[in-house]
Amino acid sequence: MLIKVPSASHFGLDSIGVEVEINLANRGLPGFDIVGLPDKAVDESKERVRTAIINSGVEFPQKKITVNLAPADIPKEGSFYDLPIAVGILAAILQFEIPSRSLFFGEVSLDGSLRHTKGALLFALFARKAGFEHLFLPLPSANEAAIIRGIHVHPVENLQEIVVHLKGENEISPIEYQDDFSEIIPQAEFNMEEILGQEKAKRAVEIAAAGGHNILLMGSPGAGKTMLARAIPGILPLLSEEESLEVTKICSAAGIIPPGGSLVRLRPFRAPHHTISQIGLTGGGSRPQPGEITLSHRGVLFLDEFNEFPRSVLESLRQPLEDGEVTISRSRERVTYPSRFMLVASANPCPCGYLNHSKKPCICSPREIERYRKRVSGPILDRIDIHIEVPDVDIRDLAQDSRAAKFVEASDVIKDRVMKARHLQEKRFHSDRIHTNAEMKNVHIKKHCSLPLEAQQMLAKAAAAFHVSARSYFKLIKIARTIADLEGASSIGVPHLAEALQYRSRVYDAV
Amino acid sequence: MNRGVVAKEDERYPALLKTISDAPKKLYYKGTWDPSLFRACLAVVGTRRMTGYGKRVAEELVGEIAAAGVTIVSGFMYGVDATAHKSAVGVGGKTIAVMPCGIDVIHPEYQKDLYEAIMKQDGLIVSEYEGGFVPTLWSFPRRNRIIAGLSQATLVIEAGEKSGSLITANFAKKFHRKLFAVPGPVTSSVSQGTLKLLEEGATVVKNAQRIISWYKENVPELSQRAQGREKAVAPERDTPQKKIERNILEYLQREPMEIDNLARTLGISAAQIGTVLSLMQLNGLIAEENGKYYIKN
């Protein structure tokens, strides 16, 4: 007896249809085999399914069972084939029909219940694209899939429940996606109002957020670099509906959406440790998995202790920083993942960390400092617009300083300014296929950043006085553009450029 | 490049150096040996772990003193030594680097540009060791006696409690030479050495004129040139921008400050302060070192 249950297989963020064929033969020795290039997780499905069916109170047939995942030449991986296989076997034993235009997805537990399974959103997207109407999946994953409109998402708790439904005895009603898009206000880890002092650094972070600029924070340990970086998601505008879906897709593929979780609304913040491998950062593997740069798509990638990352790992950031996506080619397949993130790097000024510290002396020689700084290559630094030193602060002094309180602003207040600036940028670039000032290439700078004569003269003077290189010259204009946007000014003036000069790299651009 | 060796018996051998008890038997040199170089020499020494304050002081003092015709003698180490050489070269002055190694070894090696700049400006690279001698632990303190011995006076800018600069200072005392020291913040570890010297009777240095006038009194040959530069800031009309500038200058006169501190003190946003500071720096009113702004002389 042959039963066919439709399913799918994922490639990066795309999916293709897979048919699960189940045959129960009366001839031959009893057994259970899966063919069609299953990986270990798929192969072990046999044991899970058999035990789950028995524990659901159904007698497991003493027959030769063959499961084929077609097309047979594409490798299959993941635990989500459990449900289609179980449903197929149950349909054969209990004599019910597999409903048409229905997809099954999910991992079964030994007791017959269904577990949260990664990739539910990708599956739902595939279901809609391929014209399916019903999707049966584990209850904890249902919210994730329900984001997609136009299909009925049936949350299944256990095998018994789905059998009852498929026999037509009691219906599992589809869940509706609660369109509370505007109601959820996610919180970042730190609010900007928690950060005392660091007025300049906070301003720099605001500019970076407003223009999507990459930023390098340099300062002694304990100065507050990490806290500043972690506060950034809170001043970035919320994800738009379209961006939200992109991010949720990635999270779904990586399996980082918690059980019961749904659309991701807050911009991601990823902070990989500096021992990360190149594959970990850019993605990879024989079945290419998304790396940290993809997981931080539309959000913040925070690289703490920037100079401690192996050079080859940092160099791999170059192309994704430029293109906003990364293509991972392996012998078997090639996958393109999006990777448009804001890079926030933090570094110590020297190996011991205390160069220019107000209290502790630095014990490094100039040679050591130079070698330490050269660990980061020029091309990477080129792609970081804003460089800023974060001085060490005495928290006890600041806490008592009433003047410091005057400059403390909540993240929401800053976010409003950032959103206004972003809005101006969207309007300016609507025909340019870019979104933020940071993405401007020389053509765009020529088109959108004409400088009045006064500003040109000032910039020429500054270029000579501060040894500004040609590449830094364009960075200055980009930052000045963002500063002008924050102010709502239509053209770049002398004050904007003057402030932009504060964020040039004093360490790396000096001769 | 000129090179050679001057023995103790040679009449070109610096007379002042000859008076010390263990004067080197031979001096190897690179550059042009001009006896007038040794007429008025000031040894400038200090810590390798120079702070922003030390750098600023070294640049200002040495620049002015070297411009007045005094030869700056130092040890070519990074930190205060290198800054002293650089400042002298920067104003077109003369400077002598006394190496702890042979004259063909550049130590530290990455200061090659400075090494060449010194010779290019009629300065000297001097050592008691032969060509390729590699520096050793003991050769550093040994060469300090030459630095002190060559100079009528020694100026110490920033020295820690156990600094090698104190060795040079002690040689200067032993040779009955004049000792100057620049006071620093009592909280700084690299001020402890200089403060100790001051307690023991070294002369406080507040500006370059103090040292230049000492040289004029004690070294009659020193030519009468290069007076202190005058500068006057013409009062300008009072725009809001100018008002902030004036306030900033008032605070910076007391101590160098960071943007954050200025913003809090003046109650003006970091963005606006940053704008004004950039413009002031471009106009040459102030300078910046390690994130702190100070008034430029």
Mean pLDDT of chain A: 90
The most extensive interface, with participating residues per chain, is:
A-B, 35 and 29 residues
Overall outline of chain A: elongated
Count of separate structural domains of chain A: 3
Structural class of chain B: alpha/beta
CATH architecture verdict of the largest domain in chain B: 3-Layer(aba) Sandwich
Unreliable sequence segments of chain B: 224-235
> Cα distance, first to last residue of chain A?
79 Å
Low-confidence stretches of chain A: none
Largest sheet of chain A: 5 strands, parallel
Number of helices of chain A: 22
Radius of gyration of chain B: 21 Å
Query: Terminal Cα separation of chain B, in Å?
Result: 37 Å
Instruction: Report the oligomer.
Output: heterodimer
| Helical coverage of chain B, percent range | 25-40%
Report on this structure.
The complex is a heterodimer of chains A (511) and B (297). Helices cover 39% and strands 17% of the residues of chain A. Chain A is built from 22 helices and 18 strands. In chain A, helix 7 runs parallel beside helix 18 (411-428). Chain B has 297 residues and is of the alpha/beta class. Chain B has 2 domains: 3-218, Rossmann fold; 240-295, Orthogonal Bundle (Arc Repressor Mutant, subunit A), CATH 1.10.10. In chain B, the strands form 2 sheets. In chain B, strands 1-2-6-5-4-3-7-8-9 form a 9-stranded mixed β-sheet, with helices on both faces. In chain B, strands 10-12-11 form a 3-stranded antiparallel β-sheet. In chain B, strand 5, helix 4 and strand 6 form a beta-alpha-beta unit. In chain B, helix 2 (52-67) packs parallel to helix 3 (80-90) and helix 5 (139-150) crosses helix 6. Chain B starts with a strand and ends with a strand. Residues 224-235 of chain B have low confidence and may be disordered.
